[in-house]
Specification:
The protein has about 900 residues and is α/β, with parallel strands linked by helices. It folds into five domains: about 190 residues, Rossmann fold (3-Layer(aba) Sandwich); about 250 residues, no CATH class; about 130 residues, D-Maltodextrin-Binding Protein, domain 2; about 35 residues; about 45 residues, no CATH class. Helices cover about 55% and strands about 10% of the residues. The strands form three sheets. It has a six-stranded mixed sheet with strand order 5-6-7-3-8-9, with helices on both faces. The protein starts with about 25 loop residues before the first strand and ends in a 47-residue tail after the last helix. The structure holds adenosine-5'-triphosphate. The site of adenosine-5'-triphosphate has 14 residues, from strand 1, strand 2 and helix 1.
Length: about 900
């Protein structure tokens, strides 16, 4: 939360304060008033800054001293605008940091963080040029400053890699980056760590020099308390409280000490005694920082802690109260002002600097770039090789009783087995049925195909004599005993054997001159409107897979890059240099654009041309769709990095979200196979609609004009935008959102806060929501969400209307009135009854027709009484040739003889 209006302080407003006994007005560069800062959430928050008042005059060196963990860095981060206070105010050069038009964060501040925060693969020169470009310095100026800083800070050759430098040298490069643009305010967090005494002296001399000559204000933290004697003013901190603040010589005089270290020790002892007096006995030995109630004690204590400067005077020095009142009276005005703060257009020079930085990072790691190109290719190749292909060489056992027993009537069983493609099913023959079954149970085979001893005879009886008694049907069938534990394999086995059996039957029928088409099922699959007669799973899954590969790759890489930069302090350094999240993301997208386009082209070439994945539609449209989805992945990666602090967290969040998205978006299995609720939810994954669009382009050849295609594009773009906005808002406001909670805790627990203060904080809290809602990106996101929902609802209504039309046919009686559920069930029962009656009637009719046909045929013997055979044909029942028998008969029923196809 922003704790006060940032932009309404007049730039020419002069801040004055009274320093100790000088009573002399001075111009302040940095001024904090009753600054409170908490870290953490409601249940576990710690107060790091307790009512801090700091006054840093312009053009002076301010030494911020204190032991490790006392809150120095936190205070510095608040001053440069990286953290917002929970309570209190800060002005830097008369304006709150981060206010519109203020160059803090930005060019006016040179920040050297505690960690080195440098790109390890960069040379010293590249590092300096990067910051120079960020600060919009021209090349000539950068070169001049580079030369000076390298010699001044005693740095090695400028072409040396940062990773090859010692820790101390790296810190000096970091200091050089902070000094580069000659900022008005220099904030140096322990710049002299790892620096030899000679160079330390040199650095101090330079700092004193620039503070005098160019009026640079310098805030410096250091553990070496004595070196701070060179500062114009020091602040001594302990446990988040300012114990004393004044000129070093005045402090020495006041406490009658010879060194600042002794002054600090004395102050610490006094503070400790005071703390113990104030604390309840039970908590005296406890940890001060662990819970909020301590905060209350600290708050009370803070009023009694030593302040060399006059607190009361300080309370009056900041011109916030009038502004607050003005905005409290008109919250909308306040909200508008705040919204305008965020309407900052991305700066070309910063995007350019960040792009050069990204390209340099890539250039330094060509191996990783190659890996980025290869990964999608390897993934799609593996997918095409491993997924969707028909299983081959499936091992099966065969028990052919007819062949074993050498049944004399024929060898139709062998003819059937010959029809089965050995590339698909590989048979191993068994002489005993039980052994074959055992082999399957042992997992050696996927099933047993059993043929009975008189298979040939039974087939002939069935096909030629129409014998349909159970024994004939049983003996004429191939019996399968399958291991159904693998669905895909058992489906393939069944399909192969059914097709082979059909072919076999047709062959047998043809050999007896019977039209083989009588074994065709009464379904004619005409030429498909889309796709192929024999559809391939690969063509169904590959489009979704191509989109998913790019999407997930973009998520992982982006999230990791940003989290690593965040962790190493590089992102913070960029933000303090005035870069916005939008600029960082834009530079990232532009650089990644080229990488991603190459990745997608490789992907398509491999999938389409090498693995023959069907892409009937426009290749360009496919590339564009995959690209938009890649941007969506980048935005999602950015969102992940905005909430994660460590690489491991990125991995957890990324992997944790990859599978749910993949599984619920219909990439692997049709959405139609999901329960209806899940199917509805699948509409809200970032992959579902783009995958559907990709499938429409690939297998239907649809263009952009089709609803599903353009909706896929719109969907991917909307998700990209949504993720991006949420990430940007989280990056910008995450600290504020957390602070909201802790402020409330503080407010509830602080005993001395007036109701007016509470209402003030409530106002500020509501304001932060207004701030979020009034951001143009948020409005755009909300509008696009409304549009997407509207389109979705409209589409569903249309589909429901169609469905309703079909249902009406059943559910409405003649009068067109709606039926109740009971009425509907009654109607269903009647309808089923009618259907049964109709089927019975049809069966009777068929029976009559059959009898009629039989009456028309001449009877020869018992079996052939219903058939006529051609005289020259082999009699399939007797196994004898009819040729020349004089009994002219054809075994094709005369009445059902068909004309040859095409005749
Ligand atoms: N992000 C954070 N979340 C929670 N606690 C934090 C966070 N950052 C710092 N702290 C805590 O705040 C306190 C002050 O930290 P800070 O880094 O400001 O100290 P410091 O005086 O700069 O220490 P040092 O001199 O060692 O850098 C410490 O107790 C630290 O554990």
């Amino acid at each position: 939360m922003l704790s006060f209006p940032r932009d309404q302080i007049e730039s020419h407003h002069q801040l004055y304060y009274l320093v100790g006994h000088h009573n002399e007005p001075k111009d302040l560069a940095v001024c904090t008033k009753n600054a409170w800062k908490n870290y953490g959430h409601r249940c576990k928050s710690i107060t790091v800054l307790h009512d801090i008042n700091v006054r840093v005059p312009r053009g002076m060196i301010y030494g911020l001293l204190g032991p490790s963990g006392c809150g120095k860095t936190t205070l510095l981060r608040c001053i440069v605008g990286r953290l917002d206070l929970n309570r209190g105010e800060i002005l830097v050069f008369d304006k709150p940091p981060g206010s519109r038009g203020h160059e803090i964060p930005g060019r006016s501040v040179g920040f050297m963080p505690q960690e080195t925060a440098l790109y390890k693969n960069f040379t010293i020169s590249e590092m300096l040029h990067h910051f120079g470009r960020l600060h919009n310095m021209n090349r000539k100026d950068i070169l001049v400053r580079e030369e000076f800083l390298i010699s001044f800070l005693d740095l090695p050759s400028k072409s040396k890699n940062v990773s090859q430098l010692s820790g101390g040298q790296q810190r000096r490069v970091s200091l050089a980056c902070a000094l580069l643009q000659q900022p008005r305010l220099l904030i140096l967090d322990e710049p002299t760590v790892g620096v030899d005494p000679l160079l330390r002296e040199k650095i101090w001399t330079h700092l004193i020099n620039i503070s005098k000559t160019s009026k640079t204000t310098i805030i410096i933290t250091t553990h070496y308390i004595e070196e701070a004697r060179k500062a114009d003013r020091v602040g001594l901190m302990r446990n988040g409280r300012m114990l004393a603040e004044d000129e070093p010589s005045l402090l020495l005089n006041k406490y009658n000490q010879t060194s600042l270290e002794n002054v600090f020790l004395q102050l610490c002892c006094q503070d400790q005694n005071r703390l113990q007096e104030q604390m309840p006995i039970s908590t005296r030995d406890g940890d001060r920082d662990t819970d909020v109630p301590d905060d209350v004690d600290d708050q009370n204590l803070s009023s009694t802690s030593i302040h060399v400067s006059i607190n009361k005077t300080n309370q009056d020095c900041l011109p916030f109260d009038d502004q607050k009142k003005q905005f409290e009276n008109n919250p909308m005005l306040f909200a508008k002002r705040m919204a305008s703060n965020y309407l900052i257009l991305p700066k070309i020079h910063k995007i350019y600097a960040l792009m050069i930085k990204d390209v340099t990072v890539i250039k330094r790691n060509i191996g990783f770039l190659m890996f980025q190109f290869l990964i999608p290719v390897i993934q799609v190749a593996l997918f095409c090789l491993c997924i969707g292909r028909n299983p081959e060489h499936i091992p099966m056992a065969i028990y052919n009783s007819e062949a074993i027993n050498g049944f004399p009537t024929g060898n139709l069983s062998l003819q059937l087995l010959n029809k089965i493609n050995p590339d698909q099913i590989h048979f191993t023959s068994f002489n005993q049925f039980d052994k074959a079954i055992d082999a399957v149970k042992q997992g050696h085979y996927w099933g047993v195909a059993a043929i009975q001893y008189n298979f040939t005879q039974a087939i002939k009886n069935k096909l030629l004599a129409f014998q349909t008694d159970p024994t004939t049907l049983n003996q004429s069938s191939l019996h399968l005993y399958l291991d159904m534990s693998n669905q895909q394999l058992s489906i393939t086995i069944q399909s192969v054997l059914l097709n082979s059996t059909e072919l076999f039957l047709k062959e047998v029928l043809s050999s007896y001159k019977i039209d083989p088409s009588i074994v065709d099922p009464p379904v004619i699959i005409e030429n498909p409107l889309y796709g192929n007669v024999v559809p391939k799973f690969l063509n169904f899954a590959a489009p979704g897979m191509m989109i998913s590969i790019i999407f997930f790759l973009a998520i992982g890489l982006t999230a990791l890059i940003f989290v690593v930069e965040k962790k190493e302090g590089l992102l913070e350094r960029s933000w303090i240099a005035g870069v916005t999240t939008i600029e960082i993301m834009l530079a990232h997208v532009i650089v990644k654009f080229f990488i991603q386009i190459i990745q997608i082209i490789f992907l398509i070439v491999f999938a389409d041309f090498i693995f023959k994945v069907e892409i009937k539609g426009s290749i360009f449209l496919s590339i564009m769709l995959i690209f938009v989805q890649g941007i969506c992945g980048m935005s999602y990666g950015l969102l992940i990095s905005s909430v994660c602090e460590q690489e491991i967290e990125v991995m957890e969040v990324a992997i944790g979200s990859i599978f749910p998205i993949l599984l619920s978006s219909g990439v692997i299995w049709p959405l139609e196979g999901m329960p209806s609720a899940m199917r509805f939810l699948s509409n809200f994954t970032p992959l579902t609609h783009p995958v559907e669009a990709m499938r429409c382009i690939a297998s239907r050849g649809w263009s952009f004009g089709y609803f599903k295609v353009w909706f896929g594009f719109v969907n991917a773009s909307a998700w990209s935008l949504g993720f991006f906005i949420i990430a940007a808002v989280l990056f910008a406001l995450r600290k504020s959102i957390m602070d909201d909670v802790t402020i409330e805790d503080d407010l509830e627990l602080s005993q001395d806060l007036s109701s007016q203060t509470k209402s003030q904080h409530n106002f500020l809290k509501s304001f932060s929501i207004v701030e979020i809602l009034t951001q143009p990106w948020t409005i755009f996101l909300l509008l696009s969400m409304v549009v997407v929902v509207f389109i979705y609802v409209k589409r569903n209504q249309r589909r429901n209307r169609n469905l309703l039309g079909a249902r009406d046919y059943i559910r409405h009686d003649n009068s067109g009135e709606n039926l109740s559920h009971n009425q509907y069930d009654d109607m269903e029962r009647i309808r089923q009854k009618q259907q049964k009656a109709y089927e019975e009637q049809a069966l009777r009719h068929l029976e009559q027709k059959k009898i009629k046909m039989e009456n028309m045929k001449p009877r020869t013997d018992e079996t052939s009484s219903r058939l006529k055979y051609r005289s020259n044909d082999h009699n399939p029942l007797t196994g004898q040739s009819n040729r020349g028998s004089g009994d002219s008969c054809s075994w094709r029923p005369s009445s059902s003889r068909r004309k040859p196809a095409g005749g």
